[in-house]
Structure prediction request, 118 residues.
Amino acid sequence: MATSEPQRGTAPGLTAFRAEARPVVDGTGEVVVEGEVDVATAPQLREALHQELDKGATRLRIDLGEVGFIDSAGLGVLIGAVGRLRERGGRLVLRHLQPAPRKVIDITGLQDVFELAD
Prediction:
């Protein structure tokens, strides 16, 4: 199966951002994210998540293993996806969180909003 075209963005001096939506299988979609998730890249992440939701995903796995930073704009995109998934009885799973993004999620109290997995 072919994957959808990765969403890419690069700011000067930063690691390239990539959010690649994988095919939805049995209602489960997956998006692999690399780089920093911030105000500049959040729209690209939103687009990748919406691709999966528009394909009918009711469960969404987001692999953040290559994400070293996430700001409030990125968190807002993830919270928005949780809302859309809950409307259809689904859930969102954040996988392979690095220490810095995990700390942001813990500090903001969002560990109860997202399902976290290794």
